[in-house]
Amino acid sequence: MERRSCGVRRACTLTLLMVSLCPLGTRANWMWLGVSTAGVPEKTGCANLPFSPKQKDLCRKKLFLLPSIQDGARLALSECQSQFKHERWNCSINDQPSLFGHELTSGTKETAFIYAVMAAGLVHAVTRSCSQGNMTECGCDARLKGTASAAQGWHWGGCSDHIQYGTWFSRKFMDSTSKNMSLLPKGYTLLTMNQHNSEAGRQAIERTMSTDCRCHGVSGSCAVKTCWRTMAPFGRVGMYLKERYERSVHVLDRFKKKWKRKERDVTVDKHKLIYMNKSPNYCLEDQHLGVAGTRGRRCNRSSHGPDGCNLLCCGRGYNTHVVRNVERCECKFVWCCYVRCRRCESMNDMHTCK
Q: Which SMART domains is this protein grouped with (predicted)?
């Protein structure tokens, strides 16, 4: 594979759901699929999106999937911010064309999580739309219907989530630039790393699925049960991927000149997240890398976890502010028909990093 710079437009063909892999230079260009910084939908067509030719062609053929793709992008971004809200890197959105800034192309653990959660979000949203009957090309997974386990007194029925279609579309859309997702003879490139992590995100949907059942019988006797397969809430998928992020595997960059012989032929499980480069500490602001730093972030003085003032503030110390809270309390229902509450005030300490 030839190494190319992001300055070459042909190299910018891998688009990560919400943004082009290479910044295009204007604020409007980093709006992806009608999702702007303010969350206001933009009216646009496939031709105006920062997609590769193959992705634009797929977009035109599957135009009915655009709402689901938008939902998947929002779902993934929201979950990313939820999982990292107490950490130094909090999945922050940068006010620049590349949205995630340096993390999107840095080859770090954060890059790995972004690609995985975006791919998973796309599978989840498309599959959910299929199960709800919103599309003609897919529906419930009917492969299990008609089979049963007589010994256990249940049979397959209901509407099992058909993740195969969502997985196929996510793979087709996000990995459209290359079919090679395996380990290269001399290590990984950024492209194959991102593809590996995208596939790990898709596999996370399948690995977190559960079997739900409903009882049938006289007076709730549960003589027979009907069961179906269903996706986990996306929050559970996010937790699963966060665990994979914490245990992500370092792999070799194909273009590094120095090699460690014992690491050359390392094989990585497809369910694990991988990264090539060490992450910055995210303590101090770096506008060039799009790192916001932790100054002014709220911390928990009594916590020993990542949200604790010592870790989150990187040893710089913290400021304490007294915050006055006013809320309704001691509410009672008065006949008839309204609720009467008292107005309660409290003073609480708030700690922010220096």
A: WNT1
Confidence (pTM): 0.79
Q: Between these two residues, 354 and 178, which has the higher pLDDT value?
A: 354
Kindly give the interhelix angle for 109-131 and 234-246, rounded to the nearest 10 degrees. Answer: 160
Domains of the chain: 9-293 (no CATH), 297-354 (3.30.2460.20)
* Pairing mode of beta strands 298-299, 274-275: unpaired
Q: How confident is the model at residue 50 (pLDDT cuts 50, 70, 90)?
A: low
What was the pLDDT predicted at 112? 94
Confidence (pLDDT) at 84? 94
Which residues touch 334 (CB under 8 Å, ≥6 apart)? 340
